[in-house]
Amino acid sequence: MEAIMGSDKFLNDYMYELERTGVYKIADEYGKKKLDLGCGLVGEHGWIRLDKYEYKPATVDVLWDLEITPLPFEKGFFDSIRAFDILEHIHNLLPLMNDLWRILKWEGYLDIQVPRFPHPNSVIDPTHVRYFIPDTFMYFTRGYGQRFQMACRPWEVKKIDSTEDRIFVLMQPDKSFAI
Question: Do the beta carbons of residue 116 and residue 136 sit within 8 Å?
Answer without folding.
Answer: no
